């Protein structure tokens, strides 16, 4: 019943979705939990959805791209290198920061993202070095 | 662009996943069998669950592919079993109830998807042992969520991969630069080597930058289709029409198409049709290939952007000769953006063949160096390292000899699969080069330069370059095309080398020395200097180019070629003597075939009765497409035999026509046709093309009012119902085919080591659906095919003669005469002479090349009892024949291609541009080339008179047709001419004309025919000194004012006939005197007088007191009143009141004064 209305909306309203982690950039047709293209499929957490570009139109197939992170509210795609879903969506960064709130299984999963971890380590290392140097520079400057 | 291979990442990705799936499924099923039956499985409830899903009345990922879903369920269950977890437990429910406990983990919480399909109890029935209850259903919904999540991830990965490949393309870095340049400048040149992605990406960039109507030209049709598919996929609109293509016979373009791939020729035609779609950017791709149309399009667009500020021009080329394009657009200050290609390093080796190495001294190609390279590769590179070999040769013969030698080597080592690649192969054979060889075996593709740019084969690691190419060149003065072997240019040598480094580091062997390389021309000759220009110049005139000589060509063609092409157009009547486009020329320019063929169509549609026009259409289309015969057709004895019943002894064009009709009747009976074609050595694809081309030409003729639009088909309701059912079935079949094609593309075909044998794949081909057949049957129902057959067949009688003369008129002056000594020469030594070029041969595959006897006179044909006084070495006969031909082609020898025989004198007198005669009409010279001598008095005169009258009627008919086609141009002189004919219906005129033509062509007149040499011409004419009295009244053309010919002497009696300019010989003078001396009795009025032949004629048509007089008066009076600008005029000198046009009044005044 309400389908037609929302369909019209979805044509008019488009969302520019850009993943803050992998910079995947697509035009989403809908944002929310009840994509209008497919009545019986609901999402637990509001997400960016596009009509599936790989199957003919009118088949009701959808492609969920990602959502805004429930903590930092930045858009992130559902790829496992970018986010983790547990009742809500978390970008890996936020998930890492609040890792203690997750059940064990999810903790393991978060830690499994080695790529991410090495990246974090590198980042912290760089930050550390920079902070050290900045102190040094600062001190030099003072002298 | 053509990169079929470039698109494989997506495909291969697909293939991989599906095969993995299959493996997993294989495992799971075996596990399932082992597991005890008592265990719970959702599969037991499959029936009921399916029911609920389908009743839910929604389309989504699950309901669209239930089968796939159950496969997934199976896999999922077995995974759980492996992990030792229960498939179904009440735990699920517990979990969903206690949401507050965040630390309690459920894997369903990791999934964003859920479904709200309602559970329905009423669907269960007693047949099912296990009853589905709500709990189980909820559990399955959880599985559904997992499935949705899984599918979604798969799709997202696909999307990400696509975006990654786009990003990795070298051109991606220049995205911003290109967008900015196009926005700010008028002309942008993007130069990048193959593989940099410009063809697929630049249109997208421009679309992203806000351009709404982008045209992108491609030199090849196939590239348009594949590119538009690829770009649609990349823009995620493969199921919409945002990206489309438009090629000669098909288009997939709609109102919301933003990016359209189009062939160069079609864009040009769009420009000429004066309603150029509202493009805001025109991208010209592959301009470095320097095709005729591409070059011309550049010139046209260069002019266009000066008048239209809203159009941007983007040129894309390989990094070949960018300077040329930059300079060409220097006035428009073109911006050049260079994109580096993605080429791996290539090892280059020069391996020239030294003369002393050659085992034999003859010119035959020695395949040894090529085989040696194959050996080298075998010894140097381990066979588990992949990489195929591509050998560039110049022509088909060379390819065959290399293939044979390579095949021998391959049979020994079993490490190679040898595949030829050239345009003469059937499409199935061509496609083989894309298939994969088995492990440890390499492909060896022996190709013409088709693989240099047009076809890109992936996985090539080794390239062998012979350094030669066979190229067509054109001699405009003789109108002969030449296929000759040349050294390639440096640019194409580098292009060939580059083919080795597309997928990884490669090796290139050049079978020539470094010295030879440095001696090569830097760039290949552009096509514009190598092909006939007539069609192009005609198109230019129709586009409104006033002076074609001043057109800004990128590379100007030789001046001589332009002049000759203009002359040809004037001869055809497409241009007037002051080089303005005539209405015929306008009609010709609209037809996308050669000028002479277009003329055949226009003449045909004016001359032939409506039900026979299809024959002209089919004939033109058959001559307009590439040869229908495969290479096998003329080698295989069986093929030749199979074709024999359909071979016409009138010549090759008619053989083509009768083969086409035979094929149509095979189609009409629904007997497939592929097999029929294979037996005859014919490429069936060509027949489909022929059908499409003929339909397209028909459409164009109808659009231009040159042909009546067909009446709506009247089918009975039963027929309509039958057709409806048929269509439904055909559509089903097409859908099936498409599905199959999709499946097939997923798993690429694997080559067998002995796959070069064609024998084994014959069997399975027959079961495969033939998409072209299906499409053919969709557009042509049985009735239509029957109409085509009856329209296209012209096997005998009047239809055949009319069709032949129509074609001959269009092709004239392309006629050839046999050498006088042919009767004592062997089949292969038969010599012919054409107007432009003496000493040519018949092509050995042509009908007359095989049966030259049909063209020769038999003993019985030669008249031996000659009138007294006439002596000649030449045979006197009524059966002399000419060959009318489509083209000349020089390969090893100059050959006549596609020839047709015609009765000589009749054809010449009807079609020659200039006919010169002596006083007694016994010696007639046609086009200062052929001399006809008529030993019997009056026969020559009668034939010439008939011809002249026929020609007038025919011209009038054609002019009337053309005038009716564009009625707004009523001021033109042609229209006035046409209005002179009284308005009898076309059909009646056509019928009368074709009757008269056929009786004229069949009349028996005895004569000799002789080719005049330059020496003969010097003493042929009496010269301009002797003034000849005017012929008044003029029996040849009423009202034609005679004027003297300055050089030859004599006077024009029609536009084409010069009377009394040919010198008499002793014999002809005597015969003239004799005729004068003997009293002649007029058959109509029985008056006996001593008159010369001309005077007799004048008497007959003007003096004779019988009824002819009245008719003439009627004819001369009525038309004058019809002229729009005629007015009443009273001549002061002769005191006559006349209806005349201003021009005629002036003429009349002058005449009167001189009297």
Give descriptors for this structure.
heterodimer; A: 143 residues; alpha+beta; four-stranded antiparallel β-sheet; two-stranded antiparallel ribbon; 4 helices; 9 strands; 26% strand; elongated; disordered N terminus; B: 1155 residues; alpha/beta; Rossmann fold; 6 domains; seven-stranded parallel β-sheet; seven-stranded mixed β-sheet; 14% strand
Explain what this protein looks like in three dimensions:
The complex is a heterodimer of chains A (143) and B (1155). Chain A is of the alpha+beta class and 143 residues long. Chain A has helices spanning 3-12, 92-97, 104-112, 114-142, and strands at residues 15-18, 25-28, 30-32, 41-43, 47-51, 62-68, 75-77, 83-86, 88-91. Chain A is 38% helix and 26% strand. In chain A, the strands form three sheets. Chain A has a four-stranded antiparallel sheet, with no helix packed on it. Chain A has a two-stranded antiparallel sheet with strand order 1-2. The N and C termini of chain A lie far apart (75 Å). With 1155 residues, chain B is of the alpha/beta class. Chain B has six domains: 5-164, no CATH class; 173-339, P-loop containing nucleotide triphosphate hydrolases (Rossmann fold), CATH 3.40.50; 346-525, Rossmann fold; 534-580; 582-709 and 721-803, no CATH class; 937-1005. Helix content of chain B is 45%, strand content 14%. In chain B, the strands form seven sheets. A seven-stranded parallel sheet of chain B has the order 4-5-3-6-7-2-8, with helices on both faces. In chain B, a hairpin with a 6-residue loop joins strand 33 and strand 34. The interface between A and B is large, with 42 and 36 residues. Strand 4 (41-43) of chain A pairs antiparallel with strand 1 (113-115) of chain B. Chain A: The chain crosses the membrane at residues 116-138. Chain A: Belongs to the CDPF1 family. Chain A: This is Cysteine-rich DPF motif domain-containing protein 1.
How is the main sheet of chain A built? 4 strands, antiparallel
Alpha carbon gap, first and last residue of chain A: 75 Å
Unreliable parts of chain B: 1-37, 90-103, 755-767, 977-982, 1107-1123
Strands ordered across the widest β-sheet of chain B: 4-5-3-6-7-2-8
Shape of chain A: elongated
Number of helices of chain A: 4
**How many distinct folded domains of chain B?**
6
Count of strand segments of chain B: 34
- Tell me the fraction of residues in β-strands of chain B, as a range: 5-15%
Report how far apart the termini of chain B are.
Answer: 73 Å
Helix content of chain A: 25-40%
- Show the largest interface: A-B, 42 and 36 residues
């Amino acid at each position: 019943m309400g389908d037609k209305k929302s369909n019209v909306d979805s044509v008019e309203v488009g969302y520019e979705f850009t993943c803050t982690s992998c910079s995947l950039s697509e035009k989403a047709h809908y944002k929310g939990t009840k994509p209008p293209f497919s009545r019986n499929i609901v999402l637990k957490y509001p997400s960016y959805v596009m009509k599936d570009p790989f199957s003919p139109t009118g088949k009701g197939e959808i492609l969920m791209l990602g959502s805004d992170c429930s903590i930092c509210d930045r858009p992130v795609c559902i790829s496992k290198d970018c986010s983790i879903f547990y009742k809500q969506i978390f970008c890996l960064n936020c998930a890492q920061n609040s890792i203690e709130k997750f059940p064990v299984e999810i903790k393991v999963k978060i830690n499994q993202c080695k790529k991410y971890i090495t990246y974090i380590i590198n980042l912290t290392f760089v930050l550390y070095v920079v902070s050290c140097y900045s102190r040094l520079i600062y001190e030099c400057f003072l002298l | 662009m053509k990169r079929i291979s470039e698109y494989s990442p997506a495909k291969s990705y697909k293939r991989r996943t599906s095969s993995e799936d299959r493996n997993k499924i294989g495992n799971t099923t075996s596990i399932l069998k082992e597991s005890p039956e008592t265990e719970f499985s959702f599969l037991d409830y499959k029936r009921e669950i399916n029911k609920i899903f389908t009743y839910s009345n929604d389309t989504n990922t699950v309901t669209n592919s239930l089968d796939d879903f159950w496969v997934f369920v199976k896999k999922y269950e077995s995974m759980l079993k492996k992990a030792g977890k229960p498939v179904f437990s009440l735990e699920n429910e517990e979990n969903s109830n206690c949401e507050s406990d965040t630390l309690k983990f459920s894997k369903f919480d990791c999934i964003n998807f859920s479904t709200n399909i309602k559970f329905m109890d009423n669907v269960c029935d007693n047949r099912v042992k296990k009853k589905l209850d709500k709990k189980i259903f909820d559990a399955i919904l959880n599985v559904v969520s997992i499935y949705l999540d899984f599918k979604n991830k798969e799709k997202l990965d696909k999307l990400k991969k696509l975006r990654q490949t786009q990003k990795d393309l070298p051109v991606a870095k220049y995205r911003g630069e290109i967008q900015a340049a196009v926005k700010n400048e008028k002309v942008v040149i993007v130069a990048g080597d193959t593989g940099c992605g410009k063809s697929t990406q630049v249109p997208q960039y421009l679309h992203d930058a806000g351009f709404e109507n982008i045209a992108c030209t491609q030199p090849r049709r196939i590239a348009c289709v594949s590119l538009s598919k690829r770009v649609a996929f990349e823009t995620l609109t493969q199921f919409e029409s945002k990206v489309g293509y438009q090629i000669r016979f098909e288009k997939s373009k709609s109102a919301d198409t933003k990016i359209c791939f189009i062939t160069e020729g079609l864009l040009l035609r769009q420009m000429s049709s004066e309603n150029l779609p509202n493009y805001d950017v025109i991208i010209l791709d592959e301009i470095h290939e320097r095709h005729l149309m591409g070059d011309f399009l550049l010139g046209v667009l260069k002019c266009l952007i000066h008048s239209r500020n809203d159009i941007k021009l983007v040129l894309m080329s390989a990094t070949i000769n960018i300077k040329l394009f930059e300079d060409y657009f220097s006035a428009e200050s073109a911006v050049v953006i260079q994109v580096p290609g993605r080429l791996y390093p290539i090892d280059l080796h020069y391996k020239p063949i030294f003369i002393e190495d050659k085992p034999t001294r003859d010119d035959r190609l020695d395949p040894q160096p090529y085989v040696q390279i194959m050996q080298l590769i075998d010894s140097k590179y381990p066979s588990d390292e992949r990489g195929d070999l591509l050998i560039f040769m110049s022509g088909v013969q060379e390819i065959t000899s290399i293939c044979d030698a390579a095949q021998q080597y391959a049979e020994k080592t079993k490490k190679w699969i040898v595949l030829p690649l050239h345009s003469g192969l059937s499409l199935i054979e061509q496609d083989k080069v894309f298939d994969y060889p088995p492990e440890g075996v390499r492909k060896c593709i022996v190709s013409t330069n088709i693989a240099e740019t047009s076809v890109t084969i992936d996985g090539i690691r080794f390239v062998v370059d012979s350094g030669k190419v066979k190229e067509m060149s054109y001699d405009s003065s003789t109108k002969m095309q030449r296929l000759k072997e040349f050294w390639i240019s440096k640019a194409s040598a580098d292009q060939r080398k580059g083919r080795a480094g597309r997928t990884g580091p490669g090796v290139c062997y050049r079978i020539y020395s470094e010295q030879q390389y440095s001696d090569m021309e830097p760039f290949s000759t552009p096509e514009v200097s190598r092909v006939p220009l007539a069609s192009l110049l005609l198109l230019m005139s129709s586009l409104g180019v006033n002076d074609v000589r001043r057109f800004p060509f990128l590379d100007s063609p030789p001046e001589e070629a332009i002049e000759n092409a203009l002359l040809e157009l004037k001869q055809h009547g497409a241009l007037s003597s002051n080089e303005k486009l005539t209405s015929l020329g306008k009609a010709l320019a609209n037809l996308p075939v050669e000028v002479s063929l277009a003329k055949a169509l226009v003449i045909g549609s004016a001359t032939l009765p409506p039900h026979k026009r299809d024959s002209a259409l089919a004939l033109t289309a058959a001559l307009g497409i590439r040869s229908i015969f495969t290479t096998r057709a003329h080698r295989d004895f069986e093929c030749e035999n199979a074709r024999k019943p359909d071979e016409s002894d009138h010549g090759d064009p008619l053989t083509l026509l009768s083969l086409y009709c035979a094929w149509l009747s095979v189609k009409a009976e629904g007997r497939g046709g592929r097999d029929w074609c294979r037996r005859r050595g014919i490429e069936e694809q060509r027949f489909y093309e022929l059908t499409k081309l003929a339909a397209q030409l028909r459409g164009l003729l109808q659009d231009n009012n040159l042909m009546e639009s067909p009446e709506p088909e009247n089918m009975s309701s039963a027929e309509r119902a039958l057709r409806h059912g048929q269509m439904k079935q055909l559509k089903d079949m097409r859908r099936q085919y498409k599905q199959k094609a999709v499946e097939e593309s997923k798993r690429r075909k694997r080559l067998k080591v002995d796959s070069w044998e064609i024998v084994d794949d014959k069997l399975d081909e027959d079961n495969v659906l033939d998409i072209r057949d299906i499409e053919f049957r969709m557009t042509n129902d049985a009735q239509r095919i029957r109409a085509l057959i009856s329209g296209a067949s012209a096997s005998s009688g009047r239809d055949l003669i009319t069709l032949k003369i129509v074609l001959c008129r269009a092709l004239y002056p392309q006629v050839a005469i046999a050498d006088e000594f042919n009767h004592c020469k062997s089949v292969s030594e038969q010599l012919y002479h054409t107007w432009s070029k003496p000493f040519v041969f018949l092509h050995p595959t042509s009908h007359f090349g095989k049966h030259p006897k049909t063209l020769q006179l038999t003993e019985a044909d030669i008249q031996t009892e000659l009138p007294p006084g006439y002596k000649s070495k030449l045979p006197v006969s009524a059966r002399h024949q000419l060959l009318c031909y489509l083209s000349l082609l020089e390969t090893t020898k100059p050959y006549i291609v596609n020839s047709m025989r015609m009765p000589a004198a009749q054809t010449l007198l009807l079609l020659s541009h200039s006919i010169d005669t002596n006083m007694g009409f016994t010696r007639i010279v046609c086009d200062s080339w052929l001399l006809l001598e008529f030993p019997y008095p009056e026969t020559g005169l009668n034939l010439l008179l008939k011809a002249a009258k026929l020609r007038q009627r025919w011209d009038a008919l054609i002019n009337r047709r053309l005038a009716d086609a564009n009625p707004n141009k009523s001021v033109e002189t042609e229209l006035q001419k046409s209005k002179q004919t009284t308005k009898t219906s076309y059909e009646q005129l056509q019928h009368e004309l074709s009757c008269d033509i056929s009786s004229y062509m069949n009349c028996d007149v005895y004569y000799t025919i002789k080719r005049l040499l330059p020496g003969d011409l010097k003493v042929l004419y009496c010269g301009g000194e002797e003034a000849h009295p005017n012929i008044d009244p003029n029996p040849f053309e009423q009202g034609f004012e005679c004027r003297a010919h300055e050089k030859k002497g004599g006077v024009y009696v029609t536009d084409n006939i010069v009377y009394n300019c040919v010198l008499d010989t002793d014999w002809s003078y005597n015969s003239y005197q004799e005729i004068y001396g003997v009293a002649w009795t007029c058959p109509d009025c029985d008056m006996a007088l001593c008159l010369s032949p001309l005077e007799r004629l004048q008497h007959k048509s003007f003096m004779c007191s019988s009824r002819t007089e009245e008719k003439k008066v009627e004819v001369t009076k009525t038309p004058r009143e019809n002229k729009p600008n005629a007015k009443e005029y009273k001549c002061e000198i002769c005191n006559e009141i006349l209806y005349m046009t201003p021009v005629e009044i002036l003429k009349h005044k002058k005449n009167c004064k001189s009297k």
